[in-house]
Design brief:
heterodimer, A: mainly alpha, B: mainly alpha, Rna Polymerase Sigma Factor, Chain: A, 68% helix
């Protein structure tokens, strides 16, 4: 068995390889590129968030000019606030991936990575879905109350049900992914 | 950031690059089969290693630090590939069928083909098992593997035992000729 071990090790270590190394200048330059990329991404995310808020504001003003401060307008504002909150959460969660280090054993590093992903997925209802719900509820309620009944109300209710179904589907999908990660974490080191 | 930075970091990196560059290249090959992606991965390991050395203050040996950073970068690379469906599901050492590793006698006549078979085995493994396999092939003893990975010595021994069985089969056909 020892001979076989030696054979495997020799075969492995003596394979033909052309290793790379990077000069200090190249490393520093790539590090700066990385920092620049993160900065640009953060700015783009801020711009996207600002556009959502501006769009909501414009829709709110237009709706108010047309019919005053209705429940639908309150719903639009709530949707805008919700979207802003979600943008902020996405930015906070993506901006700082845990740095790669060698101070702790690999299994701890790996477990930390998996736990971070699992927690984000498991709490998706709280930070990704819930912020949109008040807005949807207010808008659909306003539209539904305006309907006298009949097929128009049925269409509104069907749309509301489809929205709820979509949110539920997103939640289930993320829960399943979180459970898979949970099993992977439990399996670590066994 | 604590620990050395600037020239000290560069000096540490130069030492690692000098002593460990071949190991890093082999590890990158162990985690990525595609040649172009492998080169990118190898460069990413060097970059992350250089960045991490700003925090190195003798917490462990430089070799252990390098093994850990290398694996952590590679594990993220593999995870990303699995989640983006570029790679299929990976297996534990226990789940690999020994027979699956056996090639026909005509295929086992050359070292390059045996190495190819070794790679095929390694590329099927999940990151933690792959790390144990690669450290074993780097001739690290069980205690060193336990220190790098954080696995208990018992868990390392179990994995090595299984790995030896797989390697035995991988080499058996070759020796039979």
């Amino acid at each position: 068995m020892t001979d076989r071990h030696s054979t495997a090790v020799t075969l492995w270590k003596e394979q033909d390889m052309t290793p790379q190394t990077l000069s200090a200048e190249v490393l520093a330059s790539r590090h700066q590129t990385f920092i620049r990329t993160v900065t640009i991404r953060n700015r783009l995310e801020f711009i996207a968030g600002a556009m959502v808020i501006a769009g909501t504001l414009a829709a709110t003003i237009t709706s108010m000019a047309a019919g005053g401060f209705t429940m639908a307008v309150a719903g639009l504002i709530a949707l805008g606030v919700g979207a802003g909150f979600v943008c902020l959460q996405l930015w906070l969660r993506a901006r700082a991936p845990a740095p790669v280090d060698g101070a702790s054993p690999s299994i701890q590093h790996y477990r930390r990575d998996l736990e971070q992903q699992r927690d984000a997925l498991a709490s998706v209802w709280l930070w990704y879905l819930l912020p949109f719900i008040p807005g949807f509820v207010l808008i659909y309620a306003d539209v539904a109350l305006d309907m006298a009944g009949g097929w128009q109300l049925a269409v509104v209710l069907a749309l509301a049900t489809a929205t709820a179904g979509f949110l539920f589907w997103v939640w289930r999908l993320n829960q399943r992914a979180a459970r898979e990660l949970d099993a992977e974490i439990a399996d670590l080191g066994n | 950031m604590s620990g050395p930075s600037g020239p000290s970091r560069d000096a540490l990196y130069a030492e690692v690059a000098r002593e460990q560059r071949r190991m890093i290249a082999r590890m990158a090959a162990g985690y990525e089969a595609d040649l172009a992606l492998r080169e990118d991965l190898e460069q990413e390991i060097h970059l992350q290693l250089w960045r991490s050395l700003a925090d190195y203050a003798g917490q462990c040996s430089l070799a252990t630090w390098t093994y850990r950073v290398t694996h952590n970068v590679c594990a993220r690379h593999v995870d990303k590939a699995v989640r983006s469906k570029r790679l299929g599901p990976l297996s534990n050492l226990d789940d690999l069928a020994v027979a699956d590793q056996a090639a026909g006698p005509e295929q086992a006549t050359h070292e390059a083909l045996t190495l190819q078979r070794l790679y095929r085995l390694i590329h099927q493994l999940r990151p933690l098992d792959r790390q144990v396999a690669l450290l074993y092939l780097e001739d690290c003893d069980a205690a060193a593997i336990a220190e790098v990975t954080g696995l208990t010595p018992g868990a390392v021994a179990t994995r090595i035992h299984r790995l030896k069985a797989l390697l035995t089969n991988a080499f058996a056909e070759r020796e039979a000729l």
